[in-house]
Amino acid sequence: MTQTDLSHMPSRAPLAMPEQDLSRAPGRRPCAHGGAGWRLGVFAPALIITGLLLWGLHGVLAQAGMSFVEWALLAMIGLTFVWVALAVSTVGVALVGRFEARVPARYGAPMDVALLVPVYNEVTWDVFGNAAAMLNDVAARDPMHSYSLFILSDTQNPEIAQRELQAFETLRRSVPEGMSVYYRRRAQNVDKKVGNLSDWITGWGAAYDAMLVLDADSLMTGRAIVRLSDEMAADPQAGLIQSFPQLIGAETVFARIQQFSNMAYGWLLAEGLARWARAEGNYWGHNAIIRVEAFASAAGLPHIRGGRDLILSHDFVEASLLRRAGWTVKFLPRVAGSFEETPGTLVDYVLRDRRWCRGNLQHLRLLGTKGLHPVSRFHLFQGAMAYLMSPAWFVLLVFWTLLGKDAETNVIRYFNEANPLFPSWPPEMSHIDSAAFLVIMYAMLLTPKVTSALVIALRPGAVRMFGGKRAFGTAFLTEVALSVAYAPILMIQQTKAVLRALFTRREAWAPQNREGTRQPLSVLIKFHWVETTLGVLLSVGLIAGLISWWLVPIVASLLLAVPLSALSSLNLARHAPAGLRMDSPLTLHEPAIVGHARVLRAALRADLEGGSKLAAE
Question: Does the record bear Acyltransferase in its keywords (predicted)?
Answer without folding.
Answer: no
